[in-house]
Amino acid sequence: MKKxxxxxxxxxxxxxxxxxxxxxEVVDVLRGFAILGIxxxxxxxxxxxxxxxxxxxxxxNRAAALFVKFATQAKFYTLFSFLFGWGMSIxxxxxxxxxxxxxxxxxxxxxxxxxxxxxxxxxxWDGDILVTYAVLGLPLLLFRKxxxxxxxxxxxxxxxxxxxxxxxxxxxxxxxxxxxxxxxxREEMLLGYQTNVHSQGSYLELVLHRMRSIRSGYTGVxxxxxxxxxxxxxxxxxxxxxxxHHVSEHLPLFRKxxxxxxxxxxPLNLIFVAATNSxxxxxxxxxxxxxxxxxxIGGPALCLFYVSTIVLLTQKKDWRRRLSPLASVGRMAxxxxxxxxxxCTLFFYGYGLGLYHRLGPAITLALTFALYxxxxxxxxxxxxxxxFGPAEWMWRSLTYGKFQPMALEPGCRPDTFPRVAASGxxxxxxxxxxxxxxxxxxxxxxxxxxxxxxxxxRLSVNSTTLGRRLGVQQVAEPALNQTITFFENAFRGxxxxxxxxxTQRARLPVTEVLRDxxxxxxxxxxxxxxxxxxxxxGAGGLAASRKHSPLSFSTLTLTIIGVSIPSFFLALxxxxxxxxFYRQTGVGLVPxxxxxxxxxxxxxxHVTFPALVLAARPLAHITRVTFVSIxxxxxxxxxxxxxxxxxxxxxxFWRHALRNAGVSILTxxxxxxxFALGSLPVVEVFFEWPGxxxxxxxxxxxxxTTSVTALALSLGxxxxxxxxxxxIVYRFIDPxxxxxxxxxxx
Length: 746
Known about the structure:
Blueprint: H1 11-14, H2 25-47, H3 59-72, H4 76-98, H5 102-124, H6 130-137, H7 148-166, H8 172-194, H9 197-200, H10 203-217, H11 221-240, H12 251-277, H13 287-313, H14 317-323, H15 325-331, H16 333-348, H17 361-383, H18 390-400, H19 424-460, H20 463-470, H21 472-476, H22 479-491, E1 497-499, E2 506-509, H23 510-545, H24 550-564, H25 567-585, H26 603-634, H27 637-644, H28 649-660, H29 662-687, H30 692-701, H31 705-733, H32 735-741
Antiparallel strand pairs: 1-2
Helix pairs in contact: 2-3, 2-4, 2-15, 2-16, 2-17, 3-12, 3-17, 4-11, 5-6, 5-10, 5-18, 6-11, 7-11, 7-13, 8-10, 12-13, 15-17, 19-22, 19-31, 23-24, 23-26, 23-29, 24-26, 25-26, 26-28, 26-29, 29-30, 29-31, 30-31
């Protein structure tokens, strides 16, 4: 039999990227979770608070910084390292199956990653981890054919090396040499802080600063490089054992890892955080062991706790759906990692918005989740159209030596974790995402209100007057910086003071003015909406029960007038009526001005006119909605059936008509509250009611910038939060919305 000579397959034909159908979704979820954790920790560095002394932070910022360091430091680059090693095992397995040469391809892949990392470290941000992965990834080839036992032994050795180097005694000389390198890097960082290169430097100045410090910036690899390599090997071990391929068969292993990771990780990380921030607590000579040593073991321990917890949660159907959005971020992890650096440097550094050292850890932590939510949406949108993220596409194309197809093939998207779920828990998850989006919108509106109030007052108020109010230095700051300062002070509960004229000093804290104004506005709003609801529901229901009668016609006519008449005009009519009555009788109808807050008189006479004016439009709206809703219900078949069975008309009205119209009526009441809020400043000013509107006008007249900003922000936030509350309540009271959210479309 004649032998045919076979040519060894070339890697460009034998090897190709992993197709989306063959991806293991739980690993993508873990990658997405790792991207979140890396962003949480990196935000401390982006914002300039990574080495900021805790005793110089407010309590809320101190708590946020401690939480970030405890929960994320040395945990998520560890998790990413673990997944990096696992990914190599998958690539190696596919190469073996196709008979391809794996080592040259992997070496080229690491070389390209090195170039991407250097570009990232110099041109974008100096906190890069890609260079470390690329350099340490090449030695991983030496372990690809080792036994499972040899891999585990190597993992233990690699993780223990930094611990041994941190112990007192034999490793002291090594630590001294390392300390000199570390001090060189520290001096570069301090030089950057002293020259304000991050907050005020141009893009070119920052690039030059990164180029000067890049060599010393990677000195930490001497300590934690073996730790990273150990996690590479552990991921390689998991890949060779196919543990993520057959999770159900390894559930006992994940349960053990979860509990042991928690038991070991929590105390060691508490020691690390305590020693880092309070060195005096550590015995002399044991600082390195309490910091680097505890972190080296505690980081991987909590990392394995995170991994095991997520894997176990994904075995539950509802939790799989909740965690599924993370998979999109994980599928394009490199793109999202680079995107975070680009966006955050533009946000914090001087060539962008210049918010470096302006936002504390608490605010940046909130911004982190907002940015990550944006990344989920962008990743989902991108992957619904393309196979890879843009950075992944470039990396793969250079690795395989040809352009990879980007367009998404039909049926290409993995369906392991269904995204369009029909469960109550998924509906709740979607609802929580909706609420998070609304809160982000509210935060953006709050920022815009403060910014434009600050900018507008700077343009309209004399600079000399502003200098007396705020100080020359603060007046010289840009409006954006003043906006950030306002929020920083607001988080500390300090909104400044109100002033009487130019020469007098502080009269009252703005917080006290806000509190009293809220009380007064709240009393007026409750009176107005209560009056509108009681009369409107009664009048609308009565008109609906006597449809086509003169009473019904008169009621609807009055509602048209109530909706059309402006608040100030109605207030003027009532004032004229009071004047005419006073001329005839010598006594006014009711007290027109003030609220009787500090008086012995009853509140009712003082609130009558303001409440009537404020209730006019809400009353008309509630009446019309009640009339329409009950009229429609009274014509339904079950109402006719109830009447045919002899049920009295009043029972039909109360038990069936009004009850079933409750959702619409409640919605009308809440919407009317928004109408009332819009008219509140006018009514308060006209009747001198000491609420938010009158306080805002007085502050504008006295040119009190902080008071104006705080009061305007309070009015705007009250309006938006009431809308949000209505959305939340509406979901729980409307069964149609619940059924639609749960996927019942029948």
